[in-house]
Amino acid sequence: MSSTTTHTEKLAAAVEQVPGVDELYPANAVLSTVVHQVVAAITQKPATPEFVGLTETHDGITASVSIGISDAEAASEVCRQVYDAIDHYFAASAEPDEPAVTRIEVTVARIG
Question: What pTM value is reported for the model?
Fold first, then answer.
């Protein structure tokens, strides 16, 4: 993807707009996030974590996001809406030379 950072920032903004999403969690593993934060502190260059992971494989792009929600009963509906928001984003911004999004993963990392 030519502008992965732009995609991840716009996707994070779209996911945050979904009713029921209280929080987004960094897409990278905790250890990786800590290492990047330490390096950012040493180099005095702020590191902004990516909240939507985009992984390119031979099949296409996988978009993954971890969210926090407040209502356990609404978890499946919120996940569907997050999925739809990501799917809509890619449908609206698809470029002919970019690989297709073939998988969207939504994980509820926190309830309550």
Answer: 0.79
